[in-house]
Design brief:
The complex is a heterodimer of chains A (about 400) and B (about 375).
Chain A lengths: L2 H9 L3 H33 L5 E6 L7 E2 L2 H7 L3 E9 L2 E2 L9 E5 L4 H4 L3 E2 L2 H9 L3 E5 H6 L7 E6 L5 E12 L8 E5 H5 L10 E2 L1 E6 L5 H11 L7 E5 H9 L3 H42 L4 H42 L11 H28 L2 H6 L3
Chain B lengths: L3 H10 L1 H33 L6 E6 L10 E2 H8 L10 E12 L6 E9 L3 H4 L4 E5 L8 E5 L14 E5 L2 E10 L8 E5 H8 L4 E2 L1 E5 L6 H10 L5 E5 H45 L1 H10 L3 H26 L7 E6 L4 E6 L4 H27 L3 H6 L1
Parallel strand pairs in B: 4-9, 6-8
Antiparallel strand pairs in B: 1-11, 1-12, 2-10, 3-4, 3-11, 5-8, 6-9, 7-8, 13-14
Helix pairs in contact in B: 1-9, 2-7, 2-9, 2-10, 7-9, 7-10, 9-10
Classes of the chains: A alpha+beta (about 400), B alpha+beta (about 375).
């Protein structure tokens, strides 16, 4: 019998307790990963926003619109390669099959030139230009609204009264996983020509520009805003990421609270681990005395205890990682993508989150074993042997 | 029954283990109680501003004041029916969100500006001017809610914020509104705000004061039944309920999900501790059985010990959580697109629920170990 065998046998001497502790670590790793995945998923849209695009909106309010001729003036700014615009339609599904989706009235001539992460075929684009009430949808939204290419689609709006009828001319393909597949695009001129849009006639919601990869986007943004500075409608230009964040920004406090909460579960895990190890050490104090008496140095005792703690936490961490992979990345993630894309487009745990979780479990395993290990290794042989329980 | 002292002493003898477990449970109860306090805070911030004798009218199809628009001339028609109270009557208001910079430089956010007619303040008796004075009608003066006052550049008495180029809103005072979401708003003059936006002919929403709350159904039929209007009438409390559904449900759901996940970990922790206690005391349990204590009393004794252990944690956790009452944080309201401030709010019910929750965790975590204890055979246990 060598030292490794002793450690292994020790581990399963109280099988129920070891298994429960491993489960506790597993649960903690699972919760940590779930919370972190939530944070990552929440920020996904903003984090992956294209770096070569900037958005220009009304300075005073996101609900105020810009005069139509601003787009022509924007295109004159040196450094702008292409520019397009969109109006928020406040789209709602009258049958309430989809709780929330983006409905945008966009310029059909330039939209896909700028938004290159959404792709449509040349045929679809040609059909769209022929069809004033043509609409292009993301595949997830199309499935939820039960429409195909050629279908009639009736949508209502939070902003514009009555029913709005469209003809589906195509489905766009996202080029990245994080691109929203839950968006409805229809022609801005169709909205603009409708008498119900009288308050936004000849007005743009916001403008999006594609800039040269080498361009200094901050300087370019300032140049754009300076151009409109003396007008009645001033602008605010920012990176697409900042634009996306200005919608989500109101939740930054909630997200930072979640980051703290995810650390809280690690603290609980450490407490449980430390408790288990302390209990085991107390039970075996007598044995450690025997080991010391027959000549094992204190370092060995220390190594046994910390090693055992590390082993338990690592086992729990790895089981947790496997469950995260199966449960979130292979069950929950795909399910959300197909059925709840309006809530989370991309609910998958990145590898680094799993790595951090398992790493934290290992480190905290060592930490949890530290105090009992130091106490046990410092114990005098005679005292340890005297201890009976 | 095994005397309770036995359990108390057992817990005390194993101080470290008891403490570690109780601390773990305290943390979980902290999270659970925080979720409940958040729920209370959300309820207060989003809902309490409603009165049953007040009707909110929006354009049909709009769920929020922000997206609704009602032509001016309708306001007179809303005032017509006999159910409308003489005092207060009808007010039409305009709602707009403006971009404001956080005073601490942490970026921009949206603030809701409400343009209200001269009777708008009197229409809501819960509004109290806490500093400065009320804005004069027809001017660019505004008052700012206490929850956001000072949080944004320009939104503090004596400062100003641009509603449009050369159209500043001058802050002349602060107001409170019983903790409701009004306290996260800026209130100014209806006509000044409308003119600045170029929307002279419309209001966003109308509020109608009825003679009695029971007049609502008749009044709603008159308004919604009239095809000229295409309007939607709701009782004010129902309107706020609907407003808060998305954001409130989201926040409360998140909080509770986390608390429940955490409690799983804590229950495992309690189970480990109690299991250890049982394994440790096999001989004692055998002795107790030999002395004549029944299986049921052993079971009860260990369950009580587990519950006491958990409730110790519960008391610590739910006491510490009271500190959160001092914390408030901003969150975006999905319906209005603007920032509201939510404060953790403690009530006696939160405290009681947290203690019950900790007791239940102890009960579930202690069940299996207690059953094991009750099955100890006295003869074998005492043999060692």
């Amino acid at each position: 019998m060598n030292l490794a065998t002793y450690a292994r046998r020790n581990l399963f001497r109280r099988r129920g307790r070891t298994i429960l502790t491993i489960i506790a670590v597993t649960v903690a790793v699972l919760i940590f990963c779930a919370i972190r995945t939530f944070i990552v998923a929440w920020n996904a849209g903003a984090d992956e926003a294209a770096a070569d695009r900037i958005a220009t909106r009304h300075k005073v309010s996101i609900t105020m619109q810009l005069p139509r001729h601003y787009i022509d003036e924007l295109r004159e700014v040196p450094g702008i390669q292409a520019a397009t615009w969109a109006n928020w339609f406040g789209a709602k599904d009258p049958k309430e099959r989809v709780p929330f989706f983006a409905g945008l009235a966009v310029d059909h001539n330039t939209w896909f030139d700028v938004q290159q992460d959404m792709k449509v075929s040349a045929d679809v684009l040609a059909a769209w230009k022929q069809t004033p009430n043509g609409a292009i949808l993301g595949d997830v939204l199309a499935r939820a609204l039960e429409v195909q290419v050629g279908s009639r689609l009736v949508i209502t709006s939070d902003i514009y009264p009555g029913d709005w009828e469209f003809k589906v001319v195509g489905i766009y393909t996202p080029v990245r996983k994080t691109v929203d597949r839950n968006t409805l695009l229809f022609r801005w001129d169709y909205l603009n020509n409708d008498p119900r849009a009288v308050y936004s006639k000849e007005h743009l919601g916001w403008m999006v520009s594609r800039i040269a990869g080498s361009a200094d986007s901050a300087a370019l943004s300032r140049r754009i805003d300076a151009k409109f500075e003396s007008r009645d409608d001033q602008t605010m230009t920012m990176s697409e990421r900042a634009f996306a964040l200005s919608f989500l920004g109101g939740f930054s406090a909630v997200l930072s609270a979640f980051q703290w909460v995810s650390l809280g579960i690690l603290v609980i895990m450490t407490l449980i681990l430390a408790n288990t190890i302390a209990m085991s050490v107390r039970e075996r104090t007598h044995e450690y005395g025997v080991l010391r008496a027959i000549g094992f140095p204190p370092g060995h005792i220390f190594g046994f205890i910390v090693g055992e703690s590390l082993l338990v936490s690592l086992a729990g961490g790895l089981v947790g990682a496997v469950i995260v992979e199966l449960l979130i990345n292979h069950a929950l993630g795909p399910f959300m993508q197909d059925n709840m894309a309006g809530v989370f487009q991309h609910f998958f745990t990145p590898g680094w989150v799993v790595a951090v979780a398992v790493g934290a479990a290992a480190v905290l395993g060592v930490v949890a074993g530290l105090i009992p290990a130091v106490l046990a290794s410092r114990l005098k042989v005679t005292d340890a042997l005297r201890r009976l329980d | 029954m095994v005397p309770f002292q036995y359990n108390a002493r057992s817990l005390f003898v194993r101080k470290v283990t008891t403490l570690a477990t109780a601390l773990g449970i305290a943390l979980v109860v902290f999270v659970f109680a925080a979720a409940l306090m958040l729920g209370e805070g959300v309820n207060r911030a989003l809902k309490t501003a409603g009165r049953p004798d007040t009707v909110v009218i929006l354009r049909k199809g709009s769920d929020a004041e922000l997206t609704s628009a009602i032509a001016n001339e309708y306001l007179g028609l809303f005032r017509g029916p006999a159910q409308v109270a003489q005092a207060g009557g009808v007010i039409g208001e305009i709602i707009v969100v403006v971009t404001a910079e956080h005073a601490d430089g942490s970026g921009v956010s949206n603030v809701l500006v409400r343009g209200t007619p001269p009777g708008g303040l009197a229409f809501r008796p819960e509004i109290k001017i806490t500093s400065g004075r009320a804005p004069r009608p027809g001017t660019n003066e505004v008052i700012v809610g206490t929850a956001i006052s000072g949080r944004f550049k320009g939104l503090f008495p004596g400062q100003s914020i641009d509603l449009r180029r050369n159209r500043p809103l001058q802050v002349v005072g602060e107001f409170s509104a019983d903790g409701s979401s009004y306290e996260s708003e800026v209130w100014g003059d209806l006509d000044y705000v409308r003119n600045a936006l170029g929307r002279e002919a419309v209001v966003s929403s109308a509020r109608v004061r009825l003679n009695t709350p029971s007049d609502f159904d008749a009044y709603r039929q008159l308004i919604e039944g009239d095809k000229r209007y295409s309007m939607k009438a709701m009782r004010e409390p129902d309107f706020y309920e609907k407003q808060s559904q998305a954001t409130g449900g989201f926040l409360k759901g998140l909080g509770l999900t986390v608390a429940i996940l955490f409690s799983i970990a804590a229950m495992i922790g309690a189970a480990i501790t109690m299991n250890g206690a049982v394994a440790h005391r096999t001989r004692e349990i055998g002795t107790l059985r030999a002395l004549g204590f029944s299986r049921a009393s052993i079971l009860t004794s260990f369950l009580i010990e587990a519950i006491v252990l958990a409730v110790i944690g519960g008391v610590v956790g739910s006491t510490l959580v009271l500190l959160l009452s001092l914390v408030s944080f901003p969150v975006m309201n999905f319906q209005t697109f603007s920032e509201i401030v939510i404060r953790f709010h403690a009530t006696p019910a939160v405290f009681v629920k947290a203690l019950v929750f900790s007791g239940v965790m102890g009960l579930i975590g202690g069940l299996v170990p207690a059953i094991r204890a009750s099955r100890v055979s006295p003869v074998e246990a005492m043999r060692g």
